Give the backbone structure.
Amino acid sequence: MNFKKITAAIAAAAIAVSTLAVSAFATTVEIDAEYPGSWTSSGTGITKADLEAVGGDVKIVLTVETYNPYGLADQFLVNPIDYDNGWISQTVEYCTSDTITAKTDGWICVRESDTTLEFVYDQAGIAALGDDGLCFSVQNVIVKSAEYSLADSKQGELNLVDDATGKAYCFSTADDTATADAAEETVEDAAPAADTAATTSATTGNTTAAVIVSVMAAAGVAAVASRKRK
């Protein structure tokens, strides 16, 4: 390969890498600066055209702030909706997330201390959207912005809960979750381990395989040592 061909190949590779890097960049859309009201949406979101331009499943990270100025809120919720088609919830059918807890009706539960929510939105949902795209209905939450980018892969299945459990979750903390997980792990660790000790069966007189191997190894070492002495 001559110098010109090498230069052309390097240039082509640089363009390909540059294109890949650009496609991986996240875009941020500003949503609401103030609380739009209970059980409503401002109608600002990510348009269908912008979601389709990503070219696959879309990872969405919402920046959120809970709204409880009078201390009377009983829950904090966000619902990704198809704004043009009856505000149909997109959560259960089209979203996956490793971290989100949601009610079975699609309302995502937000802990009072949460500042972000992350999920992957399936391109099948994008295809069915109206032109206004994906918007966010809220209850006692301000969705400040939505950052979106091409998802590397889908995330896990949503943790779906009933209404009472969802409300309790909203007032839980990350420490509560960690404590529950630790307790579960402790129970699992307490399960009796298999007995691998070198024992002989009381009924058959058979020695375990581990003992047999150990004896054979010791015998081999002794035999080698004996030959060396001779």
